[in-house]
């Protein structure tokens, strides 16, 4: 039969506690993965904080010995609850600011909408102008086409008229030449002499009459030729005058086409300018709509993020409070057992000494956390010291914690009896182990910057019955 002593029971409790909390850790990791997939945790910073929270929960639940670390676990959970409540208050303040920002953004959105409406009106006006210019261009082009067709026809008429004038001019010249010959012949021979010659040469009176008839026809032909020459000359002159008019009209029409083409160019230029204006307005509208949607999405994202963080912290605080209640119950039971056993770790009236050299860089009380940037409460003091400087026990006592604690880094907690403990955090390395008894001034660790820290320093706390105290009330500086 295996003998089960009190120490074995404690070890068994530790194992059960680790198994239970490992299950909790897996659930938290699953929850975080879901949040990451849903884009609830944005950016590296938020992911890092989430991982810190997860590891804080896990290590705070698993790395403390069940019996000897109950007190500091309760302090840590109370501090965590207080810090979480401060965070919740801070998040609620951020939420109130977000509501104010939302109201301010609503005004901005109204202005954006007014600008969008104005841009839409300008866009409509530009589109109407483009339509007007297009109609003007189409009408002008139709006029140009009509005038051009008329010009083409007129140019053909002018060419035909020029050929006709050339032909008539040639005919007139031929007739004038023939008429000239006839006139010169008549001038050389008188009419009476011509009659006597015809009479003498006639074989008979009938022959004479026939010749007289022929002469009469010649005279009539000569008169007709004279009239034709006059008519041809007149037609040539009229044709030239008509041709000059048509040429003048043609030049006028060409000038009109040139002017219309200039109008078309001007309208096309205006058309292009309006089209470019439309493109710019469309681009501007898209930008404004994008800005508007960006403001809306930004507010919605912030609201969702803040609400999620508040709900997570409230849920986390509830779990921590339940754990704290159980720890207090276990501490009371352990204290009763210790008192019944007659054991005590009271260091008497021994006073506290400075655990490290260096000036106080952060006092006890309310402050903005230098790591998270969140308003909170500093439960101890920070002593600035170089990396690796020795950390000494402020008072004689027993080591109840010598391990890495999430947030605190490498930490030593000494129990001085009568409900008094001291805490030394952010060490680079530890020089003691759990269960060891140390004397006042003994080196227990070395200054570092582990855990949530911005540089090498010692975070020092004094606890009385689990409540953090102002160390300056116990130390002389």
TrEMBL record:
Q: Which Pfam families match?
A: CC_PcsB, Peptidase_M23
Q: Which residues form the M23ase beta-sheet core domain?
A: 377-471
Against InterPro entries, the record matches this protein to: Cell_wall_metabolism_enzyme, Dup_hybrid_motif, M23ase_b-sheet_dom, PcsB_CC
Task: Mark out the compositionally biased spans (Low complexity).
Answer: 332-349
Coiled-coil stretches are 74-178
Region annotation Disordered: residue ranges?
330-354
Q: Which domain of life is it from?
A: Bacteria
Membrane as UniProt keyword: yes
Which residues are in the Peptidoglycan hydrolase PcsB coiled-coil domain?
168-238
This entry's Gene Ontology molecular function terms read: metalloendopeptidase activity
Q: Which residues cross the membrane?
A: 42-64
Keywords in alphabetical order: Coiled coil, Hydrolase, Membrane, Signal, Transmembrane, Transmembrane helix
What the entry lists under PANTHER family is as follows: MUREIN HYDROLASE ACTIVATOR ENVC (PTHR21666:SF270), PEPTIDASE-RELATED (PTHR21666)
Name it: Septal ring factor EnvC, activator of murein hydrolases AmiA and AmiB
